[in-house]
Design brief:
The complex is a heterodimer of chains A (about 180) and B (about 200). Chain A is mostly helical and about 180 residues long. Helix content of chain A is about 90%, strand content about 0%. The longest helix of chain B has 26 residues. The chains are: A mainly alpha (about 180), B mainly alpha (about 200). At the A-B interface, helix 1, helix 2, helix 3 and helix 4 of A face helix 2, helix 3, helix 5, helix 8 and helix 9 of B. The structure holds zinc ion.
């Protein structure tokens, strides 16, 4: 069997069956390297297992409660601080924005009034001009659209056409009579 | 898990710190010992163990009752210690012996010789662990002192079983090499050479 296999058995503390144990024993008797590794691992395991278990100082759990209290107090203080900080910040923001609005309104009030008057005057002028343009057009359009006017135009046009046609045919018969 | 323990967990989830303190009382030793082996000093171990229980208390809602509570705690303890090691870059595990007085107090006052031997053992252990990468160190600690299986170590350290095996293989080889060096250094030169010759002849 290979040297590496025994090394794995030794280092991983593998559970071995009887035959494997015999094989290992035979190899340990032949191979100084594995023998030395095996003895070192055994001695380390012995050292570890016979060493006293480290124990905390007495009243460990009381110290834990005290520490936990401190942690919770700190957390509560943080929450309180954050809440108060948030409220203060919100108040400052609201107050300052209201202040800015008030201030600008006070400073610009006369100007705003003036601009408003100007705007309204301009609108009145504009509407007046529109009125001047659209009133005659409106009047004319009413006349154009009037049916009486349409009938009279239609009748006079057909009268002219009829008169023109009569004159035309008359002139043709006159031509035939005069020219042989 | 016992019924009382389930009750303590349920009460602690409702914000009862005293109920959780009973769990702290019960599991302080394994948690502390993982932290101590990982970090190497009682001061760091105390801090890490306390922090482990604080984190566990705060994360209690995320605890899955089908899993072992001990494994869950050790998982928090190992991962916190790994983070601490990485943060502080503490590669040398020092032993502060003055603060070490309470370490495993025996029933009877130990003889100076025995105390010196224990101290020597602790120093040897810490120097074997000191050279291992953080995660490998945690795996070794869980295997030797908490009798965790590969699967349990894998679950605790969030690794695959095969990754745990290869890490332990590497770690144990490293420790064996270090151990062999330590043996050579600690024994007088002539003696150790003689021992080596004797060993080599006996194994041939
Ligand atoms: Zn070999």
């Amino acid at each position: 069997m290979k040297h590496q296999q025994f090394e794995t058995w030794i280092l991983l503390d593998t559970e071995l069956n009887q035959e494997q144990q015999r094989n290992l024993q035979v190899h340990l008797n032949q191979c100084a390297q594995c023998n030395s590794l095996y003895r070192a691992t055994q001695q380390i395991a012995h050292l570890f297992r016979t060493s006293p278990v480290p124990e905390p100082a007495p009243d460990f759990s009381y110290r834990w409660i005290a520490r936990m209290d401190r942690v919770e107090n700190r957390k509560n203080r943080l929450i309180l601080g954050a809440t108060l900080g948030g409220i203060s910040l919100a108040t400052i923001l609201v107050l300052s924005s209201v202040g800015i609005q008030l201030r600008s309104t006070l400073v610009y009030f006369p100007q705003m009034m003036l601009e408003m008057v100007t705007l309204i005057t301009k609108w009145i002028i504009f509407l007046n001009q529109l009125w001047d343009i659209f009133t005659p057009l409106f009047r004319v359009s009413i006349k154009l659209v009037s049916p009486v006017w349409l009938y009279s135009v239609g009748l006079s046009l057909s009268g002219i056409t009829a008169a023109w046609m009569v004159a035309f045919f008359r002139s043709r018969t006159l031509q035939k009579e005069l020219l042989p | 898990m016992s019924i009382t323990e389930e009750q303590w967990i349920a009460e602690a989830k409702n914000g009862d710190k005293d109920a959780f303190a009973k769990l702290v009382e019960k599991y302080q030793k394994p948690v502390y010992s993982v932290c101590y082996r990982m970090l190497g000093t009682p001061t760091a171990a105390e801090d890490a163990a306390q922090e482990t229980f604080i984190r566990a208390y705060q994360a209690l809602d995320r605890y899955d009752p089908t899993r072992s509570f001990a494994t869950w705690l050790l998982s928090i303890a190992s991962n916190y210690s790994i983070d601490q090691l990485r943060k502080m870059k503490v590669t040398i595990l020092s032993m502060d012996n003055e603060k070490h007085a309470w370490l495993a107090p025996p029933a009877n006052e130990p003889s100076p010789e025995k105390a010196a031997l224990e101290k020597e053992k602790q120093a040897q252990i810490q120097s074997l662990l000191a050279d291992l990468p953080e995660i490998d160190r945690a795996a070794v600690i869980l295997q030797y002192w908490h009798n965790s299986s590969y699967e349990e170590i894998a679950e605790t350290l969030n690794l695959s079983s095969s990754a745990v095996k290869s890490r332990l293989f590497r770690a144990r080889r490293l420790m064996a090499e270090k151990w062999q060096q330590m043996q050579l250094v600690s024994v007088p030169q002539v003696n150790s050479t003689a021992k080596r010759i004797a060993h080599e002849t006996s194994t041939i």
